[in-house]
Specification:
Helix content: under 10%
Strand order of the largest sheet: 1-5-4
Strand content: 25-35%
Structural class: mainly beta
Mean pLDDT: 90
Low-confidence stretches: none
Length: 83
């Protein structure tokens, strides 16, 4: 958890499954990766400047909003497309 409350993982982009990507942290599910923090007004997942997967709420503290502490699980999978 960085000083802004963003959740920083140790997962590099090369370790992530191919698109479409699904990220789950606490009860929050995020489909797809954003390119920047401004791509969404709600929770988002992106590859941060350190090259790892991050979960963030633009203009808010993701850790507090989601009730997450360091060490909580972040699950990454391939999103299932509706048929």
């Amino acid at each position: 958890i960085d000083r802004f409350g963003n959740l920083i993982t140790n997962l590099r982009q090369a370790h992530l499954p191919a698109a479409p990507l699904r990220v789950q942290v606490a009860s929050q599910v995020i489909d797809g990766l954003s390119k920047t923090y401004q791509d969404n007004v709600d929770v988002l997942a992106l590859i941060g400047s350190g090259g790892t997967l991050e979960i963030a709420f633009p203009n808010a503290n993701a850790a507090k909003t989601l009730g997450v502490i360091m060490g909580d699980a972040v699950r990454v999978s391939t999103a299932v497309s509706p048929r």
